[in-house]
Amino acid sequence: MDPSSLFDRPPTPRAIGAVNWRGLWTLYSKEVRRFVSVFTQTLLAPMVTTLLFLAIFTLALGGAGRVVEGVDFVRFLAPGLIMMSLMQNAFANTSSSIVMAKVQGNIVDLLMPPLSATELNLGIAGGGITRGLMVGVATGLAMWAFVPLGLHAPLAVIYFALNGAIMLAFLGVAAGIWADRFDHIAAVTNFVIVPLSFLSGTFYSISRLPPEWQVVAQFNPFFYLIDGLRYGFIGRSDGLLGVGVVVVLAVNVGLWLLTQRMFATGYRLKP
Amino acid sequence: MTPVARRPPARPAADPPRPRRFGWINWRGLWTLYWRDAFRYLRYGVESIGGPAVSSLLFLAVFSLALDGRGEMVPGVTLVQFIAPGIVVFSLTHSAFESAAVPIIYDKLEGMIGDVIGAPLTPLEITAGYLLSATGNGLVTGTVILALMAVFVELPLHAPLIVLGFAVAASALFALVGIVVGLWSERWDNYSAADTFLIMPLGLLSGAFFTLEGVPEGARWLFDLNPVFHAVQGFRYGFIGVAEAPVAVSAAVLVGLDLVLAALAWRLFALGYKIKP
């Protein structure tokens, strides 16, 4: 074939179907490579910190066969710690990615390409979900070596781990879009995410709390995530499992709609 | 008509400008370097003070909620009285470390370290400037946390001077560690590795949150090697009058390490380790 015949027709723009799969994949893999290339900070560090937490809480509280609600203290604690590190890392990935892009100005590289609001949202959130789950699996495996965790209901483990990662990834997207500087994100992390994850029943059973605070805890979606994951491992939960399944799904749909709206309207993204 | 060269009117003879003279110590330069990093820290108070304050209170809340079945760690001392000083030392050391290492790395990466090296400051003054600002910042964080805890916990005060001495020695020690780590780090990655694998383990496994009774007999000697352990013991002794290590030994360990690390930091600045081409 004569090579010059290639140039007979003018180049046509790439036809994009209903979904720009290539763009979505590119964005997603960029988000994943972003944290994998600094894996000591993003995967190893949370794992080590979580194991240290396990060590100090076991040393401080777990002595002499302490039990919480009929369960060994370490078995009670471990699923909560796994969920905490999963949540904090899913949040950190999406929020820092968006704020960094905004501060450095390369956010236009996301807004200019032919990516719809849905594709942007899912690509960025996908990176956070992946990091959250990877950290969760890594900490889970590391804990398996020290704690007789068991696996009561694998489907519950998958469901709650996935929904936890999704919830915090979307929260991170929302916070990242809202924030203008890094200290805004630090404030959200310090004053919202960390307190909610600490006070959601990782370290104690909710039944320990005074009755009015028990009611408050029921409105905390993180409580259902931790409780559900704990049920999946050790088969015991504080709240009603069915309620947890519905609540986390509803919260995730709500957050998805919110972030979707933010990308579609260009809230704090477009001038 | 020939043009007449016009001379500028004669000025009264003035002394030519002379370089500023320094005495033994460039006080103004030292103060400037100190205040720059102290100001950076205060300016981001939400992150640098608010963050540790919230997480310290959370630690306190979580421990008292999780432990309400078991009252006393040490006879006569309630659990919260036992862990509150430990949490203060943990946050104080971390804050001192962070506020020494972060400015140095930031200046290196942004190329501003030249402004420090190029200024008429001797290596000793540079070391002192970074050391004093980070030590002060750590002490501010510790004081704020202690004040917040005093709202919730009834803390006895056995020996105020010992409290103050150990707070200063511990803060200075981790400020010096921060300087060394800051000089050594080439990327944020290095800093975060030092934080995760050195500072956090030292701080969390320091006996701040638990007594050595729970630790297996054979592993206790490891705690004696941890400077944060000694800082916690001495600081706590100042409040409750009980410690798991002799206070004099703890004080000697901290002061000795302070001196060694100060000498190291000073030599590193003098050599320009990783900061001069």
How would you describe the overall organization of this protein?
With 271 residues, chain A is an all-alpha fold. Chain A has one domain (21-265). Helices cover 71% and strands 1% of the residues of chain A. Chain A is built from ten helices and two strands. Chain A has helices at 21-36, 39-61, 73-104, 108-111, 117-144, 154-178, 182-198, 211-218, 221-234, 241-265; strands spanning 67-68, 71-72. A two-stranded antiparallel ribbon of chain A has the order 1-2. In chain A, a hairpin with a 2-residue loop joins strand 1 (67-68) and strand 2. In chain A, helix 3 runs antiparallel to helix 5 (117-144) and helix 6 (154-178) packs antiparallel against helix 9 (221-234). Chain A is elongated. The termini of chain A are far apart. The model of chain A has no long low-confidence stretch (mean pLDDT 91). With 277 residues, chain B is an all-alpha fold. Chain B has one domain. In chain B, 70% of the residues lie in helices and 2% in strands. Chain B contains ten helices and two strands. Chain B has helices spanning 27-43, 45-66, 79-110, 113-118, 123-152, 160-184, 188-204, 220-224, 227-240, 247-271; strands spanning 72-74, 77-78. In chain B, strands 1-2 form a two-stranded antiparallel ribbon. In chain B, helix 1 packs parallel to helix 5 (123-152) and helix 6 (160-184) packs parallel to helix 10. Classes of the chains: A mainly alpha (271), B mainly alpha (277). At the A-B interface, helix 2 and helix 7 of A face helix 2 and helix 7 of B.
Give the gist of this structure.
The complex is a heterodimer of chains A (271) and B (277). With 271 residues, chain A is mainly alpha-helical.
Task: List its traits.
heterodimer, A: 271 residues, mainly alpha, two-stranded antiparallel sheet, 10 helices, 71% helix, B: 277 residues, two-stranded antiparallel ribbon, 2 strands, 70% helix
Rg over CA atoms of chain B: 24 Å
- Bin the strand percentage of chain A: under 5%
Order of helices and strands of chain A: HHEEHHHHHHHH
Q: What is the CA-CA span between the terminal residues of chain A?
A: 50 Å
Total helical segments of chain B: 10
User: Into how many domains do the coordinates of chain A divide?
Assistant: 1
pLDDT averaged residue by residue of chain A: 91
Largest sheet of chain B: 2 strands, antiparallel
Structural class of chain B: mainly alpha
* Biggest sheet architecture of chain A: 2 strands, antiparallel
Strand content of chain B: under 5%
- Point out poorly predicted stretches of chain A: none
Helix content of chain A: over 70%
**What is the number of helices of chain A?**
10
Q: Largest interface, with Cβ-Cβ < 8 Å?
A: A-B, 33 and 34 residues
Instruction: Quickly give the structural class of chain A.
Output: mainly alpha
The portion of residues assigned to helices of chain B is: 55-70%
Give the domain tally of chain B: 1
- Assembly annotation: heterodimer
Q: How large, in whole angstroms, is the Cα Rg of chain A?
A: 21 Å
